Amino acid sequence: MTQETSHALSGDLATLSPAMRQYRTAKDAHPDTLLFFRMGDFYELFFEDAVVAARELQLTLTARDKAKSVPMCGVPYHAAETYLQRLLRKGYRVAICEQMEDPKQAKGVVRREVTRVLTPGTALDPALGAEQSNYLASVVVAGSNTSMACGIALLDLSTGEFRATEFSGPSAWAQTADELGRVRPVELLYGAGLLGGVNLTGEAVEEGFAGLDAIRTKTPLEEWVFTADHALPLLRSHFRVASLDGLGLAGHEAAGIAAGALLHYMRATKQGGLEHVDGLRFYERSSCLELDGVSVRNLELVEPLFSGETQQTTLFYTMDACCTPMGKRLLRATLLRPSSDLAEIDARLEAVAQASGDLRRREALRQAMTGVLDLERLLGRLALDSAGPREVTSLAATLQCLPGLLAATREFDASKWRRLADGFDSLEDLYELIATTIAEDPPVSLADGGVIRPGINAELDELRELSRSGRQALAAIEERERQRTGITSLKVRFNNVFGYYIEVTKANAKAVPGDYERKQTLVNAERFTTPELKDYETKILTAQERSGEIERKIFNELRRQLLDAAGRMRETARRVAEIDLLGCFAHLSALRGWTRPVVEAGGQLEFIGARHPVVERRLEESGTGRFVPNSVHLDADAGPSVLLITGPNMGGKSTYLRQAALLVIMAQCGCFVPAERMRLGLVDRIYTRIGASDNVARGRSTFMVEMTETAAILNSATNRSLVLLDEMGRGTATYDGLSLAWATVEHLHNRIGARTLFATHYHELTLLAERLERLKNLRVTVKETTGGIVFLHAVEAGPASKSYGIEVARLAGLPAGVIARAREVLKLHERAESQQVREAAADHVPAMQMTMFTPLSQRIVDRIAEVDVDGLTPREALNLLAELQRELKG
Ligand SMILES: Nc1ncnc2c1ncn2[C@@H]1O[C@H](COP(=O)(O)OP(=O)(O)OP(=O)(O)O)[C@@H](O)[C@H]1O
């Protein structure tokens, strides 16, 4: 807030109007929000809030007072929703200050109160994609230094999904950051000072919390919120359990505190209706194939590498053939957390095999899911009281599909299908409940009346009859009065302000009988009432009011009954999602000719005739060519463990690397894969170091990012991991880069033994095959023609014969002169280098750095190159020479 406005705001209390005094109290209690202050039909914003809102929402900024010291802008209350969502999407928090009494009945100024605080993590965004979850997260560090644990809790208010996890040990921080980077919550809560001196929004966090930049809103809460004494009782009371053990949180206090703090926040921001948050699930990452935030981004699993690019490059897009929103969300979550449980993977593959081989049953299954809407989100809206009659009928329409879906699922007898069908609750009672209570085609709003079916409540039926007969009586009155007065255009009408009245045209006004009482004069008409009409009016309006009350009561009772069954509905929704996911896998496998991979415990990674699922699709769709299948043979235990891939730019190296990771992910998700054959020993974690990362935008150099990522790989990969390194060392001087790449390959080969795919432009590295027994050279092939090179995209054994960088540059249109000169320079270099590299590859490698890459002499060469010889005096020249010699001698 600027000084000027804060001065105006804090002006003498006495000089403020009573409403502005209320405003100030509300604003003081919610200083970090934009305050929407209800005044009649508008929400008004004042002072700095008005300036911000006018800018963000493109509203006209006006002033409340004559002196123009109070900036103001406003939005009509009925259109507030869209404005609120726009602010939330930009990361603002908004407090809603409502009028708490009817202005007509208020004595003095209307009482106002902040009824709800909306934040990105607590407000439901209707524009939210069905496949995305809207997580509010909280993170905490609990325990002492010796037994520190980091807890994370995640709540998706739109579906009621609530889960928590925790990490301990020396890499707890890094794992926490990874998890948050992968989940990408829209809002993160944390204890301002609890993070052991690490400020989440500050510099120190940069290193350990690489994924957190993407989180729009970070909300610090006071430290005591994250204490066991405060958070755990909250958690226990919400779930009405005596101990955390009942929630599966025994021994996981940090996770419990994170969850409790999250509930605290829900209360503090006055979020009502948490009935659908009826369970908390403790989850562990160890049972899944671990993917860090960097790999999720690099492999474009769910989002394109560069925001704003088309979604079509993502694996999620390529694999999304789910029929329901629940299925889509599960697919997304599954791609981010593939399984590492052999039995589970196998059970899924078996289920997929059965359904993919049976077109008729599979289609029946998928057909049974059309019409299934977002059960979880409908439930969420019901709990948050934002569901109207139409949402309830949508819910019924969805429930109505369930028995059919169950029957279609039962058609398959693979164990996974059976487990899903056994105990599947098709919620028929709930369907009956809605179908017998709510009228067909109810109005949008409860207030419109006619929502509840006849025959449910005797009084309601009577009242409806009364108002119906009342209306008939009014029609009769109209007819009678027309005859009595002889005015054929006489009408009996109703409006909200005047109630029922008789309307005649001006010209006829003189002819009305004496018992007509004038009510209103319009330009062309006069309106009257009569005692009889007044009588009916009271009867009808009272009947309508009363029936409205009864309808509301019955509707609320129905809502409560449905919410009581929230747990059952959520369990069914979970099963529907799984059925949908397996159906989707089966459908794609059949449609695209994918095959069942063999997943086992060993160290192999072998596929034959494999394709990159996304690139293949894109080539097919654009009609620009066919994907050339390729193969991989790796074995962490015996046989080749490192594949070194060389070849020209654009040759398909990156595609080959990514394809290997995507196929592993698909297989461990339990899906078939685009390959003729695939055999896979379970992978515990995929590491990627591919291309430039968007971290560059955050001010770290490309090289620094690359080395940080490489360090993480070398420090934590195991011999069950899959490591992909693409063009490592590119970001620095050639010799530095080559040396680092060389040493990295050696380390991976000799020490770690992880299955590794290493794509490089350093041809020198291909000589490593002579020394490292389990390293194999591969090359992407090209054909040289008189017109230049043609990419064949096939991968074959052996090192690339030469670099085609200059050829590719020619294709890109570099001027002929530059190309010719580059060829000359290349020849000189190649001659000089080949000898040195051979020496380095021989066994006396420790001397490599000095003989082959002499950074020192490189520096001297650079110095000499920079000197302006003509501008140098003889003395300066001598000094320089002496200096260079000193440096050489060291
Ligand atoms: N097996 C294949 N079959 C058909 N097209 C392919 C195949 N592999 C790659 N391509 C196509 O070739 C293009 C270049 O592939 P990719 O980016 O993998 O090359 P690269 O060797 O990594 O290049 P650079 O070294 O410049 O990064 C891709 O856009 C893809 O469409």
From TrEMBL:
Entries under PROSITE patterns matching the protein: DNA_MISMATCH_REPAIR_2 (PS00486)
GO biological-process terms attached to the record: mismatch repair
Domain of life of the organism encoding this protein: Bacteria
Keyword Acetylation on entry: no
PANTHER family to which the protein is assigned, alphabetical: DNA MISMATCH REPAIR PROTEIN MSH1, MITOCHONDRIAL, DNA MISMATCH REPAIR PROTEIN MUTS FAMILY MEMBER
Family assignment from sequence similarity: Belongs to the DNA mismatch repair MutS family.
Signal peptide region: none
Annotated protein name in UniProt: DNA mismatch repair protein MutS
InterPro entries: DNA_mismatch_repair_MutS, DNA_mismatch_repair_MutS-lik_N, DNA_mismatch_repair_MutS/MSH, DNA_mismatch_repair_MutS_C, DNA_mismatch_repair_MutS_clamp, DNA_mismatch_repair_MutS_core, DNA_mismatch_repair_MutS_N, DNA_mismatch_repair_MutS_sf
Residue sites binding ATP per the record: 647-654
Record-annotated DNA mismatch repair proteins mutS family domain positions: 721-737
